[in-house]
Amino acid sequence: MNYPGGxxxxxSPLQNNFVDYANRGMKLEDDLNITxxxxxxxxxxxxxxxxxPIKITKVNFLSRSNVTIKEAFFDTPSTTDYNGxxxxxxxxxxxxxxTSKTSFPLSNIHPHQxxxxxxxxxxxxxxxxxxxxxxxxxxxxxxxKDLKQFLNNTTRKSIPLSFFENNGYMIKEKxxxxxxxxxxxxxIGGNNxxxx
Amino acid sequence: MNYPGGxxxxxSPLQNNFVDYANRGMKLEDDLNITxxxxxxxxxxxxxxxxxPIKITKVNFLSRSNVTIKEAFFDTPSTTDYNGxxxxxxxxxxxxxxTSKTSFPLSNIHPHQxxxxxxxxxxxxxxxxxxxxxxxxxxxxxxxKDLKQFLNNTTRKSIPLSFFENNGYMIKEKxxxxxxxxxxxxxIGGNNxxxx
Lengths: 196, 196
What we know:
2 copies of one chain form a homodimer.
Chain A: H1 27-41, E1 45-49, E2 54-63, E3 66-74, E4 82-86, E5 89-98, E6 103-105, H2 111-122, E7 126-133, E8 138-143, H3 144-152, E9 158-160, H4 161-167, E10 169-171, H5 181-188
Parallel strand pairs in A: 5-7
Antiparallel strand pairs in A: 1-4, 2-3, 4-5, 6-9, 7-8, 8-10
């Protein structure tokens, strides 16, 4: 939603003290959480963001109901951030933002996350990544099979924007749901030729 | 694995400093993690335990790669602990232990977790709970539809062992995989009459 003067108004129910307007890194995640809440509210799909993996090193244990974590660290995720079910199908994806205007750095995704997406595809799930080029305000969904095709044929350390334009599916931001990626999956259907 | 004198020998690769031999609460989780690792290793299924949800309240931020959590609390889970994909199907379950010899207290499972399992079933996934009666050394898999049947017809605050015996499926502990719950799902197949 763009307001006059380029001000972006946000009233996210998920917004908390850790997120501020300058924190671009959280915006896509917030919008996907709101989108997934919406999908659940209308009973369209059950898809959640997994909790952030954390390695706990010090705990203050007073009682079963009174436990405070006194020291912990962010852990490397072994899987992707989002998964769930849609129309009986297993859905699995990773979402990332980049400030680059020309390409998506592959360093943003861990190799075991790529391996995970590949396994999901092999096992009959729907696996993809959602990438937002924040400075272009463009969001693309790229299926794992297309991502793999790229990775198998290059030594590049980033995926050029043109690859997303030619092989991905652009997701237009809406009011509700904000990032309607399930509509993209509906449109793709079984017809892999039908690109946007 | 029962050794002479009733000693249980455990050599879990997941065992860490927080888990000791007396901590019965972790045993089922450990064994399920090892089972899921095994399923992934043989490429049978891709099922993970989700990270424990944590609410972070204080962070020491030195740099992007040097962040220490200084205070955090365990959060109420909004979904179940385990999900993934098996034979193209979405799998979702919660696992709990009880020291009771006669019934499983429903207070062990949050109402929104029960609601979550119900939604998964509605959306065409395979939803269930795994309950271990630790003092009886018996593990049961109970499908969501049978669990719902029980909940809809009672005001009881616990599920009697006999209900698991009559409506659930006993999982016999093995060496590898330790808790072969996918074998149970294979055996159930489409035939709901075939109980153990």
